[in-house]
Amino acid sequence: MQAFASNWTRPYAMSNPGRPYAIADFELMTTILSALMWRKNNGSIRMITDSVGERFYRSLGLASLWDGGISHELDNIPYTIDPCTFWAAGKLYALSLVSAPCVMMDTDFIVWKDIRERVQYSELAVIHREMLSPEIYPSPDKFELSSRYSFPKEWNWDVPACNTALTYFGNEKLRLTYLKQAFDFMDAVRGRDGLIYMVFAEQRLLAMCAEASNIHIHALSTTEALFSREQQDFTHTWGFKQAMSEHPQLREAFCQKCAQRIRRDFPEYARICSRIPALRKYF
Fold first, then answer.
1. Residue 67 gets which letter from DSSP?
2. Which of 11, 42, 162, 195 could form a disulfide with 83 if both were Cys (CB 3.0 to 4.6 A apart)?
3. CA atoms of 42 and 109, how far apart (whole Å)
């Protein structure tokens, strides 16, 4: 099963002017395990990034993580796309380069088991659905948009959003429809809220496109199950990143646990990690 991860570094550059690109140790750990575990259990994976991201990964000796290669097509994202508002736009542009069937996966998401049979008959599978809390998913009148833009009349604004940390596209027509609608929306946005516009383009819009196309959305998990102690199929660190940034002991424990897993299952990459300055102390 073909998968891709993505990393658009322009949002980092905007938030950290003049600073060289860097990734926190715990994020490097999940990036490494995400790629290696996918290859072990589910198939091939590639990294779609920009020139800054490609140089960064190659400088650390990590380019071989992605057996499908590492490339820098995200250099071509138009500068009309505001990286502060649309900080995750890179994954949508990366998706435009990969035909269905494919898996779109965040670098902070790890799949520990073989999921091929769970998605092979799906036209769309996502890790879980999200309820429409108004502070994250507001009503359409809250968006500041170009007067030339209008939402498609067939969209159902009550359908729960899709969390796209892991997304399987089995239907090529849906992939193309989703991308067109997302890009049209991003082009029309005149507001600058860094939350509501991005999650709409990435997550809510996908659910509405699927329903309008009469495509069933297969949820692989639930929010509650994904973050329970009994969870063994998936790890998503999204909600844990802030805690690790603020609490060194949590960060240390997490990185040590990741290092232990890499040493056990992928000893050749443990040697690579031991030469990376940010990870050396864990190996």
1. T
2. 11
3. 14
